[in-house]
Amino acid sequence: MADHSTPKHRLLVVEDEASIRALLESTLRLTGFEVSSADSGAAALREVERFGPDLVLLDVMLPDLDGFEVTRSMRAGGITTPVLFLTARIDVSDRIAGLRSGGDDYVTKPFSIEEVLLRIRAILRRTGAEESPSGEAGENILLFADLRLDEDAHEVHRADRYVPLSPTEFQLLGYLMANANRVLSRTQIVQHVWGYDFAGDSRIVETYVKYLRKKIDCVGPPLIHTVRGIGYCLRLPRDHSQHAQAADR
Ligand code: CA
To answer: With pLDDT > 90 as the criterion, what percentage of the chain qualifies?
Structure first.
């Protein structure tokens, strides 16, 4: 098994229903993760500090703080640990609210353990926690316009200014930069960044593009462009005169 050479990933399970918590804990341990758990929002925040998980599996409905508040509180404290929500709510707006609060993905209850594992692995893969720490250094740098993305250091700069991004935002920008000047469909983006078929819920892409624009396109000319009815493209802005000339030909 591939897991022998790599250190165990640490997962924090936050769930107030004891039976579900026990099931998740035992299954995830069996699968090779190091697992800790918490049964409330306050306990979760303490455990995030103490245990330092690679990922938090976070129930939305908790007796004190809800999962969204826990996530907001983590992000406000500068903790970028990825969050996978467990939610019984089926309303899409709640899901989007969850992602807005800084979560990375969600699984709807009742869930299958297989699905939870799939999502956990997809998140760990895209946050780089699953890459082997073997020593190729400094080669993985993407450049476009005044953007610089360093995959090894996991850092983005625009015009020499550091831009803090969440793991998912980082992955999305990397995909756009690797395909600069090419139009990418929402489906392509979902499949590449989220790593599985997101059942047509392309709003997650719009949400994350909005985040990226706020961070990337507020410091210079806009580089992330919407291509109506298709998707998105990272390119230099075209000014109107060029546009008019092109149309004349
Ligand atoms: Ca609950």
So the answer is: 37
